Amino acid sequence: MITGHFSAQVLRLVSNLILTRLLVPEMFGLMSAVSVVLIGINMFSDIGLLQNIVQSQRGSQRLFLNTAWTIQIIRGFLIYFIAALLCLALYFVQSAGILTGDTVYADPTLPILLAIAALSAPIFGFLSVNIFVQRRNLAASKITILELSSQVIGLIVTIFLAWLWRDIWALLLGNIVSAVIKVAGSHLKTFGDRPALQLDRSCAKEILNFGKWVFVGSIFGFCLNHGDRLLLGGLVTAKVLGIYNIAYFLAMAAKELLFTLFKSIFFPVLSETFRNAPQDVERIYYKIRIKIDGVSMFAAGFLFASGTNIIKIMYDDRYHEAGHYLEILGLSLVATGFSLANQCFLAHGKAKLTTALIASQVFILYTVVPLAFVTSGINGVIWAIAATPVANALISLYLMKKYLFLNLKREFIMLPMILAGYAVGALTIAQINLN
Protein backbone atom coordinates (compact mmCIF):
# COMPACT_ATOMS: atom_id res chain seq x y z
CA MET A 1 0.00 0.00 0.00
CA ILE A 2 2.85 2.39 0.82
CA THR A 3 4.57 1.63 -2.49
CA GLY A 4 1.33 2.12 -4.41
CA HIS A 5 0.45 5.37 -2.67
CA PHE A 6 3.98 6.75 -3.01
CA SER A 7 3.97 5.91 -6.71
CA ALA A 8 0.56 7.56 -7.12
CA GLN A 9 1.78 10.72 -5.38
CA VAL A 10 4.89 10.85 -7.58
CA LEU A 11 2.69 10.54 -10.67
CA ARG A 12 0.40 13.29 -9.39
CA LEU A 13 3.37 15.53 -8.62
CA VAL A 14 4.99 15.02 -12.02
CA SER A 15 1.71 15.65 -13.84
CA ASN A 16 1.06 18.67 -11.62
CA LEU A 17 4.44 20.17 -12.49
CA ILE A 18 3.77 19.62 -16.20
CA LEU A 19 0.17 20.86 -16.13
CA THR A 20 1.00 24.03 -14.18
CA ARG A 21 3.21 24.98 -17.12
CA LEU A 22 0.50 24.26 -19.68
CA LEU A 23 -2.52 25.71 -17.83
CA VAL A 24 -3.15 28.87 -15.81
CA PRO A 25 -3.88 28.91 -12.03
CA GLU A 26 -7.55 29.85 -12.61
CA MET A 27 -8.18 26.44 -14.23
CA PHE A 28 -6.90 24.59 -11.17
CA GLY A 29 -9.12 26.76 -8.98
CA LEU A 30 -12.21 25.88 -11.04
CA MET A 31 -11.33 22.19 -11.13
CA SER A 32 -10.80 22.24 -7.38
CA ALA A 33 -14.31 23.62 -6.91
CA VAL A 34 -15.77 20.96 -9.23
CA SER A 35 -13.96 18.20 -7.36
CA VAL A 36 -15.10 19.45 -3.97
CA VAL A 37 -18.75 19.62 -5.04
CA LEU A 38 -18.66 16.09 -6.52
CA ILE A 39 -16.90 14.66 -3.49
CA GLY A 40 -19.54 16.35 -1.35
CA ILE A 41 -22.43 14.78 -3.24
CA ASN A 42 -20.66 11.42 -3.12
CA MET A 43 -20.07 11.57 0.63
CA PHE A 44 -23.56 12.90 1.32
CA SER A 45 -24.86 9.58 -0.05
CA ASP A 46 -22.18 7.37 1.53
CA ILE A 47 -23.62 4.38 3.41
CA GLY A 48 -20.29 2.75 4.25
CA LEU A 49 -20.26 -0.19 1.82
CA LEU A 50 -16.49 -0.64 2.13
CA GLN A 51 -16.55 -0.43 5.93
CA ASN A 52 -19.56 -2.75 6.05
CA ILE A 53 -17.94 -5.47 3.94
CA VAL A 54 -14.70 -5.23 5.95
CA GLN A 55 -16.38 -5.18 9.37
CA SER A 56 -19.38 -7.54 8.89
CA GLN A 57 -19.28 -11.27 9.63
CA ARG A 58 -21.17 -11.73 6.31
CA GLY A 59 -18.72 -9.60 4.34
CA SER A 60 -17.48 -12.51 2.21
CA GLN A 61 -20.88 -14.04 1.36
CA ARG A 62 -21.93 -13.74 -2.29
CA LEU A 63 -25.55 -12.77 -1.52
CA PHE A 64 -24.35 -9.96 0.74
CA LEU A 65 -21.84 -8.76 -1.89
CA ASN A 66 -24.40 -8.81 -4.71
CA THR A 67 -26.82 -6.78 -2.59
CA ALA A 68 -24.07 -4.27 -1.79
CA TRP A 69 -23.18 -3.95 -5.50
CA THR A 70 -26.82 -3.36 -6.47
CA ILE A 71 -27.17 -0.66 -3.84
CA GLN A 72 -23.93 0.92 -5.04
CA ILE A 73 -25.23 1.13 -8.64
CA ILE A 74 -28.47 2.76 -7.50
CA ARG A 75 -26.45 5.19 -5.43
CA GLY A 76 -24.26 6.13 -8.43
CA PHE A 77 -27.24 7.18 -10.55
CA LEU A 78 -28.76 9.00 -7.58
CA ILE A 79 -25.55 11.02 -7.22
CA TYR A 80 -25.68 12.06 -10.88
CA PHE A 81 -29.34 13.09 -10.57
CA ILE A 82 -28.51 15.28 -7.56
CA ALA A 83 -25.51 16.76 -9.40
CA ALA A 84 -27.71 17.59 -12.43
CA LEU A 85 -30.19 19.41 -10.19
CA LEU A 86 -27.33 21.30 -8.56
CA CYS A 87 -26.00 22.35 -11.98
CA LEU A 88 -29.41 23.70 -12.97
CA ALA A 89 -29.76 25.55 -9.67
CA LEU A 90 -26.30 27.10 -10.04
CA TYR A 91 -27.06 28.15 -13.63
CA PHE A 92 -30.30 29.91 -12.64
CA VAL A 93 -28.68 31.56 -9.62
CA GLN A 94 -25.92 32.91 -11.86
CA SER A 95 -28.45 34.03 -14.51
CA ALA A 96 -30.45 35.88 -11.86
CA GLY A 97 -27.35 37.86 -10.88
CA ILE A 98 -27.29 36.53 -7.31
CA LEU A 99 -23.67 35.39 -7.68
CA THR A 100 -21.58 38.27 -8.93
CA GLY A 101 -17.97 39.37 -8.86
CA ASP A 102 -14.94 37.23 -9.61
CA THR A 103 -15.42 34.42 -7.07
CA VAL A 104 -15.21 30.79 -8.21
CA TYR A 105 -18.94 30.12 -7.85
CA ALA A 106 -19.79 33.03 -10.15
CA ASP A 107 -17.81 31.58 -13.08
CA PRO A 108 -20.28 30.86 -15.93
CA THR A 109 -18.45 27.68 -17.02
CA LEU A 110 -18.83 26.01 -13.61
CA PRO A 111 -22.31 24.44 -14.15
CA ILE A 112 -21.35 22.65 -17.39
CA LEU A 113 -18.00 21.54 -15.93
CA LEU A 114 -19.83 20.06 -12.96
CA ALA A 115 -22.39 18.31 -15.17
CA ILE A 116 -19.71 16.55 -17.23
CA ALA A 117 -17.55 15.68 -14.23
CA ALA A 118 -20.56 14.11 -12.47
CA LEU A 119 -20.58 11.31 -15.08
CA SER A 120 -17.91 9.62 -12.96
CA ALA A 121 -20.56 8.85 -10.30
CA PRO A 122 -22.66 6.33 -12.30
CA ILE A 123 -19.42 4.96 -13.77
CA PHE A 124 -18.01 4.22 -10.31
CA GLY A 125 -21.38 2.76 -9.33
CA PHE A 126 -20.42 -0.32 -11.38
CA LEU A 127 -17.07 -0.78 -9.59
CA SER A 128 -16.85 -4.43 -8.55
CA VAL A 129 -17.33 -5.07 -4.82
CA ASN A 130 -14.60 -7.68 -5.12
CA ILE A 131 -12.26 -4.73 -4.59
CA PHE A 132 -13.73 -4.36 -1.08
CA VAL A 133 -13.27 -8.08 -0.41
CA GLN A 134 -9.62 -7.75 -1.39
CA ARG A 135 -9.26 -4.94 1.15
CA ARG A 136 -10.97 -7.06 3.81
CA ASN A 137 -8.37 -9.77 3.17
CA LEU A 138 -5.48 -7.26 3.09
CA ALA A 139 -4.66 -8.32 -0.49
CA ALA A 140 -3.22 -4.97 -1.51
CA SER A 141 -1.06 -5.83 -4.53
CA LYS A 142 -3.85 -6.39 -7.08
CA ILE A 143 -5.68 -3.24 -6.03
CA THR A 144 -2.48 -1.20 -6.16
CA ILE A 145 -1.69 -2.37 -9.69
CA LEU A 146 -5.22 -1.57 -10.87
CA GLU A 147 -5.25 1.90 -9.30
CA LEU A 148 -1.82 2.82 -10.64
CA SER A 149 -2.68 1.56 -14.13
CA SER A 150 -5.88 3.61 -14.30
CA GLN A 151 -4.07 6.66 -12.93
CA VAL A 152 -1.21 6.41 -15.44
CA ILE A 153 -3.59 6.14 -18.39
CA GLY A 154 -5.72 9.00 -17.09
CA LEU A 155 -2.67 11.24 -16.58
CA ILE A 156 -1.30 10.50 -20.05
CA VAL A 157 -4.65 11.48 -21.56
CA THR A 158 -4.81 14.62 -19.39
CA ILE A 159 -1.32 15.82 -20.27
CA PHE A 160 -1.80 15.13 -23.97
CA LEU A 161 -5.11 17.01 -24.10
CA ALA A 162 -3.68 19.88 -22.03
CA TRP A 163 -0.80 20.20 -24.49
CA LEU A 164 -3.23 20.01 -27.42
CA TRP A 165 -6.03 22.26 -26.13
CA ARG A 166 -4.51 24.33 -23.25
CA ASP A 167 -7.96 24.16 -21.67
CA ILE A 168 -9.61 22.93 -18.45
CA TRP A 169 -11.45 20.19 -20.38
CA ALA A 170 -8.21 18.21 -20.37
CA LEU A 171 -8.40 17.87 -16.57
CA LEU A 172 -12.04 16.82 -16.77
CA LEU A 173 -11.77 14.19 -19.50
CA GLY A 174 -8.62 12.68 -18.02
CA ASN A 175 -10.49 11.96 -14.77
CA ILE A 176 -13.34 10.27 -16.63
CA VAL A 177 -10.96 8.07 -18.62
CA SER A 178 -9.24 7.03 -15.40
CA ALA A 179 -12.61 6.10 -13.85
CA VAL A 180 -13.61 3.95 -16.82
CA ILE A 181 -10.29 2.05 -16.77
CA LYS A 182 -10.51 1.38 -13.02
CA VAL A 183 -14.11 0.13 -13.17
CA ALA A 184 -13.44 -2.11 -16.16
CA GLY A 185 -10.34 -3.56 -14.52
CA SER A 186 -12.18 -4.32 -11.27
CA HIS A 187 -14.30 -6.91 -13.12
CA LEU A 188 -11.31 -8.98 -14.26
CA LYS A 189 -11.40 -12.63 -13.20
CA THR A 190 -8.30 -12.13 -11.05
CA PHE A 191 -10.43 -10.24 -8.47
CA GLY A 192 -13.02 -13.02 -8.19
CA ASP A 193 -16.44 -13.93 -9.56
CA ARG A 194 -18.30 -11.05 -11.13
CA PRO A 195 -21.08 -9.58 -8.97
CA ALA A 196 -24.71 -9.81 -10.09
CA LEU A 197 -27.76 -7.62 -9.62
CA GLN A 198 -29.49 -9.00 -6.55
CA LEU A 199 -31.31 -7.39 -3.63
CA ASP A 200 -31.81 -9.40 -0.44
CA ARG A 201 -33.93 -7.78 2.26
CA SER A 202 -31.92 -9.00 5.28
CA CYS A 203 -28.60 -8.05 3.69
CA ALA A 204 -29.92 -4.63 2.67
CA LYS A 205 -31.22 -4.08 6.21
CA GLU A 206 -27.83 -4.86 7.74
CA ILE A 207 -26.04 -2.61 5.23
CA LEU A 208 -28.39 0.31 5.81
CA ASN A 209 -28.47 -0.08 9.63
CA PHE A 210 -24.69 0.05 9.83
CA GLY A 211 -24.54 2.70 7.13
CA LYS A 212 -26.83 5.23 8.76
CA TRP A 213 -24.11 6.52 11.09
CA VAL A 214 -21.48 6.24 8.36
CA PHE A 215 -23.85 8.33 6.22
CA VAL A 216 -24.08 11.06 8.85
CA GLY A 217 -20.34 10.80 9.53
CA SER A 218 -19.56 11.11 5.82
CA ILE A 219 -21.56 14.33 5.58
CA PHE A 220 -19.60 15.82 8.44
CA GLY A 221 -16.40 14.28 7.04
CA PHE A 222 -16.89 16.09 3.75
CA CYS A 223 -17.64 19.36 5.50
CA LEU A 224 -14.43 18.89 7.46
CA ASN A 225 -11.97 17.54 4.87
CA HIS A 226 -13.11 19.83 2.05
CA GLY A 227 -14.57 22.71 4.03
CA ASP A 228 -11.50 24.85 3.47
CA ARG A 229 -11.94 24.88 -0.33
CA LEU A 230 -15.73 24.96 -0.02
CA LEU A 231 -15.54 28.14 2.05
CA LEU A 232 -12.72 29.70 0.03
CA GLY A 233 -14.72 29.19 -3.18
CA GLY A 234 -17.13 31.87 -1.99
CA LEU A 235 -14.46 34.16 -0.55
CA VAL A 236 -11.56 34.35 -3.02
CA THR A 237 -10.86 34.36 -6.74
CA ALA A 238 -10.17 31.24 -8.82
CA LYS A 239 -6.50 32.24 -9.01
CA VAL A 240 -6.07 32.39 -5.22
CA LEU A 241 -7.91 29.10 -4.80
CA GLY A 242 -5.70 27.51 -7.46
CA ILE A 243 -2.54 28.66 -5.64
CA TYR A 244 -3.93 27.43 -2.32
CA ASN A 245 -4.72 24.08 -3.92
CA ILE A 246 -1.05 23.63 -4.89
CA ALA A 247 0.01 24.16 -1.26
CA TYR A 248 -2.77 21.88 -0.01
CA PHE A 249 -1.75 19.08 -2.40
CA LEU A 250 1.86 19.11 -1.19
CA ALA A 251 1.01 19.54 2.51
CA MET A 252 -1.48 16.68 2.48
CA ALA A 253 0.71 14.20 0.57
CA ALA A 254 2.00 12.55 3.76
CA LYS A 255 -1.40 12.78 5.42
CA GLU A 256 -3.15 11.12 2.47
CA LEU A 257 -0.63 8.26 2.60
CA LEU A 258 -1.42 7.68 6.26
CA PHE A 259 -5.18 7.97 5.69
CA THR A 260 -4.87 5.40 2.89
CA LEU A 261 -3.22 3.06 5.36
CA PHE A 262 -5.93 3.88 7.93
CA LYS A 263 -8.70 2.67 5.62
CA SER A 264 -6.92 -0.08 3.73
CA ILE A 265 -4.71 -1.70 6.39
CA PHE A 266 -5.24 -0.42 9.93
CA PHE A 267 -9.06 -0.52 9.90
CA PRO A 268 -9.20 -4.18 8.73
CA VAL A 269 -6.51 -5.08 11.28
CA LEU A 270 -8.37 -3.40 14.16
CA SER A 271 -11.69 -4.94 13.01
CA GLU A 272 -10.13 -8.42 12.97
CA THR A 273 -8.62 -7.82 16.43
CA PHE A 274 -11.93 -6.67 17.93
CA ARG A 275 -13.61 -9.78 16.49
CA ASN A 276 -11.04 -12.37 17.56
CA ALA A 277 -8.66 -10.94 20.19
CA PRO A 278 -10.16 -7.84 21.87
CA GLN A 279 -7.61 -8.04 24.70
CA ASP A 280 -4.89 -7.08 22.20
CA VAL A 281 -6.57 -3.97 20.78
CA GLU A 282 -4.74 -1.41 22.95
CA ARG A 283 -1.32 -2.95 22.25
CA ILE A 284 -1.90 -3.06 18.49
CA TYR A 285 -3.44 0.44 18.45
CA TYR A 286 -0.37 2.05 20.00
CA LYS A 287 1.99 -0.10 17.94
CA ILE A 288 0.35 1.52 14.89
CA ARG A 289 0.21 5.00 16.44
CA ILE A 290 3.94 5.29 17.11
CA LYS A 291 4.67 4.71 13.42
CA ILE A 292 2.02 7.21 12.29
CA ASP A 293 3.19 9.89 14.71
CA GLY A 294 6.83 9.40 13.74
CA VAL A 295 6.08 10.06 10.07
CA SER A 296 3.49 12.83 10.46
CA MET A 297 5.32 14.87 13.11
CA PHE A 298 8.62 14.68 11.22
CA ALA A 299 6.83 15.81 8.04
CA ALA A 300 5.21 18.72 9.91
CA GLY A 301 8.56 20.04 11.10
CA PHE A 302 10.19 19.51 7.70
CA LEU A 303 7.50 21.41 5.77
CA PHE A 304 7.41 24.28 8.28
CA ALA A 305 11.14 24.77 7.75
CA SER A 306 11.28 24.36 3.97
CA GLY A 307 7.85 25.05 2.42
CA THR A 308 8.71 28.35 0.73
CA ASN A 309 11.89 26.98 -0.82
CA ILE A 310 10.14 23.80 -2.01
CA ILE A 311 7.62 25.86 -3.97
CA LYS A 312 10.30 28.13 -5.44
CA ILE A 313 12.29 25.12 -6.63
CA MET A 314 9.33 23.26 -8.13
CA TYR A 315 7.05 25.99 -9.56
CA ASP A 316 7.34 29.22 -11.54
CA ASP A 317 6.81 32.61 -9.93
CA ARG A 318 3.02 32.57 -10.52
CA TYR A 319 2.75 29.99 -7.72
CA HIS A 320 5.39 31.23 -5.25
CA GLU A 321 2.78 32.55 -2.82
CA ALA A 322 1.86 28.90 -2.14
CA GLY A 323 5.16 28.50 -0.26
CA HIS A 324 3.98 30.42 2.80
CA TYR A 325 0.68 28.52 2.74
CA LEU A 326 2.57 25.22 2.59
CA GLU A 327 4.63 26.00 5.70
CA ILE A 328 1.51 26.78 7.75
CA LEU A 329 -0.58 23.88 6.44
CA GLY A 330 2.30 21.49 7.13
CA LEU A 331 1.87 22.10 10.86
CA SER A 332 -1.58 20.47 10.73
CA LEU A 333 0.14 17.10 10.16
CA VAL A 334 1.05 17.04 13.86
CA ALA A 335 -2.48 15.88 14.76
CA THR A 336 -2.75 13.15 12.08
CA GLY A 337 -2.15 10.21 14.42
CA PHE A 338 -5.04 11.16 16.68
CA SER A 339 -7.39 10.45 13.75
CA LEU A 340 -6.69 6.74 14.18
CA ALA A 341 -9.26 6.90 16.99
CA ASN A 342 -11.95 7.20 14.28
CA GLN A 343 -10.92 3.86 12.78
CA CYS A 344 -10.82 2.28 16.21
CA PHE A 345 -14.37 3.38 16.97
CA LEU A 346 -15.59 2.09 13.58
CA ALA A 347 -13.82 -1.25 14.04
CA HIS A 348 -15.55 -1.59 17.43
CA GLY A 349 -18.92 -0.88 15.80
CA LYS A 350 -19.20 2.56 17.45
CA ALA A 351 -19.77 4.61 14.31
CA LYS A 352 -21.79 7.08 16.39
CA LEU A 353 -18.64 8.19 18.22
CA THR A 354 -16.82 8.80 14.94
CA THR A 355 -19.71 10.97 13.79
CA ALA A 356 -19.68 12.98 17.02
CA LEU A 357 -15.91 13.47 16.78
CA ILE A 358 -16.05 14.76 13.21
CA ALA A 359 -19.14 16.93 13.82
CA SER A 360 -17.44 18.85 16.63
CA GLN A 361 -14.46 19.59 14.40
CA VAL A 362 -16.74 20.77 11.58
CA PHE A 363 -18.42 23.23 13.93
CA ILE A 364 -15.04 24.70 14.87
CA LEU A 365 -13.84 24.96 11.24
CA TYR A 366 -16.98 26.69 9.96
CA THR A 367 -16.96 29.10 12.87
CA VAL A 368 -13.29 30.04 12.87
CA VAL A 369 -12.52 30.29 9.11
CA PRO A 370 -15.07 33.05 8.24
CA LEU A 371 -14.01 35.04 11.32
CA ALA A 372 -10.35 34.63 10.37
CA PHE A 373 -11.04 35.86 6.83
CA VAL A 374 -12.87 38.96 8.08
CA THR A 375 -10.16 39.85 10.60
CA SER A 376 -6.94 38.68 8.93
CA GLY A 377 -7.69 37.82 5.29
CA ILE A 378 -6.33 34.75 3.52
CA ASN A 379 -3.32 34.47 5.86
CA GLY A 380 -5.61 34.21 8.88
CA VAL A 381 -7.69 31.58 7.10
CA ILE A 382 -4.62 29.40 6.47
CA TRP A 383 -3.70 29.52 10.16
CA ALA A 384 -7.28 28.68 11.14
CA ILE A 385 -7.35 25.68 8.79
CA ALA A 386 -4.02 24.41 10.13
CA ALA A 387 -5.14 24.76 13.77
CA THR A 388 -8.50 22.97 13.39
CA PRO A 389 -7.07 19.40 13.62
CA VAL A 390 -5.83 20.23 17.12
CA ALA A 391 -9.49 20.23 18.20
CA ASN A 392 -9.82 16.72 16.78
CA ALA A 393 -6.83 15.60 18.85
CA LEU A 394 -8.22 16.94 22.12
CA ILE A 395 -11.72 15.55 21.58
CA SER A 396 -10.41 12.15 20.47
CA LEU A 397 -8.36 11.90 23.67
CA TYR A 398 -11.49 12.46 25.73
CA LEU A 399 -13.57 9.90 23.80
CA MET A 400 -10.80 7.27 23.83
CA LYS A 401 -10.47 7.61 27.61
CA LYS A 402 -14.23 7.42 28.16
CA TYR A 403 -15.09 4.51 25.85
CA LEU A 404 -11.93 2.49 25.18
CA PHE A 405 -8.46 3.21 26.65
CA LEU A 406 -5.88 5.99 26.91
CA ASN A 407 -2.13 6.06 27.57
CA LEU A 408 -0.96 9.68 27.61
CA LYS A 409 2.73 8.77 27.45
CA ARG A 410 2.20 6.80 24.23
CA GLU A 411 -0.01 9.55 22.81
CA PHE A 412 2.75 12.18 22.93
CA ILE A 413 5.99 10.17 22.90
CA MET A 414 6.86 11.14 19.31
CA LEU A 415 6.56 14.94 19.74
CA PRO A 416 10.37 15.42 19.46
CA MET A 417 10.10 14.28 15.83
CA ILE A 418 8.74 17.77 15.02
CA LEU A 419 12.10 19.30 15.98
CA ALA A 420 13.96 16.57 14.11
CA GLY A 421 11.94 17.29 10.96
CA TYR A 422 12.50 21.04 11.29
CA ALA A 423 16.26 20.55 11.68
CA VAL A 424 16.48 18.27 8.64
CA GLY A 425 14.36 20.70 6.59
CA ALA A 426 16.46 23.71 7.56
CA LEU A 427 19.75 21.90 6.91
CA THR A 428 18.52 20.60 3.54
CA ILE A 429 17.53 24.06 2.35
CA ALA A 430 20.79 25.55 3.64
CA GLN A 431 22.76 22.95 1.72
CA ILE A 432 20.76 23.60 -1.46
CA ASN A 433 21.32 27.35 -1.14
CA LEU A 434 25.06 26.83 -0.66
CA ASN A 435 25.25 24.82 -3.87
Describe the structure.
By secondary structure, this protein is mainly alpha-helical. The protein folds into 2 domains: 1-225, no CATH class; 237-435, no CATH class. The chain has 19 helices and no strands. It has helices at residues 2-22, 25-44, 49-55, 62-95, 110-117, 120-125, 130-136, 140-165, 169-186, 201-225, 227-232, 238-251, 253-276, 281-314, 322-330, 340-347, 351-403, 408-412, 416-434. The longest helix has 53 residues, at 351-403.
Beta-sheet strand percentage? under 5%
Mind telling me the C-alpha Rg? 22 Å
Distance between the termini: 36 Å
Number of helices: 19
Task: Chart the SSEs and their pairings.
Layout: H1 2-22, H2 25-44, H3 49-55, H4 62-95, H5 110-117, H6 120-125, H7 130-136, H8 140-165, H9 169-186, H10 201-225, H11 227-232, H12 238-251, H13 253-276, H14 281-314, H15 322-330, H16 340-347, H17 351-403, H18 408-412, H19 416-434
Brief synopsis:
The chain is mostly helical.
Output the keywords.
79% helix, mainly alpha, globular, 19 helices
